[in-house]
Amino acid sequence: MGSSWNWAEHDLGSTADIVGSNHHGLHAATEGRNISMIGEAFKIYSRNWFPILMWSFIIIAPITVFSYLGIVYVYSNDILHNESFLAGWLLMLNFILCIPPFLKMVKKDGMDETIKVTEGLFFFAKRFGVILLVATIVYALGLMGMYLLFIPTVVAILFLIIFPFFVESLSVWETIKQTFRKMRDENLSIIGDILVIAGLNIVLWTSLMMFLESYETSILAFLIIRVTLNVLILPILYIYLSLRYRSDDFALDI
């Protein structure tokens, strides 16, 4: 009897070791893949620096200016209510509206093709309305979900981060289905991406504010800083997230 119990304990211990080893191996593989994607993102950036530079000044900078001035107006207007909700909507649009040309660039780079500046601009213009409309509706639904234990709000945030990376599909319904499929497969990873994006912005912005607090700064100075940060940071984030969410669809070897 004692021998049987020893064998059972040995089998259970072996099973636990195997499960633990598999979990550790999966975790290490995921970390290695993410590191590989970061390296690949910088390689893609270096291969396509000219269109990225053009899109940064033609798309990212103007949208950042509009978003920032809109937030200033919202908080300085006594008539408007729920200023933080409106400011959040503007910040969200600032991030997701600029994604399409960078998504297109990553796809073409994976096929060893070079994207033209005008090609990215046309793709941005074609997808601008869809992203704006869907994002506004989902954002509004997410705000209403705050009264339902925040669960719809979390789903809305995840959706808003993923949706723009599937907009190359001509069908809005197909884009929505692909977005929910990716959310189902990588929900925890997406939450991690959101935390990293938010944390990076908070750290950089806070550091700059601490540096500038001893100087007299105007709205124009803050605007220039915000535009500069977005022009430097957003392109590499867009490339990395395109690799994160679409590398399998684009047949990228990462």
From TrEMBL:
The answer, when asked if Membrane is one of the entry's keywords, is yes
| Signal sequence segment | none
Keyword annotations from UniProtKB, A to Z: Membrane, Transmembrane, Transmembrane helix
- In terms of superkingdom, the source organism counts as Bacteria
Carries keyword Secreted?
no
This protein is called what? DUF624 domain-containing protein
* Segments crossing the lipid bilayer: 52-74, 86-103, 124-141, 147-167, 188-212, 218-241
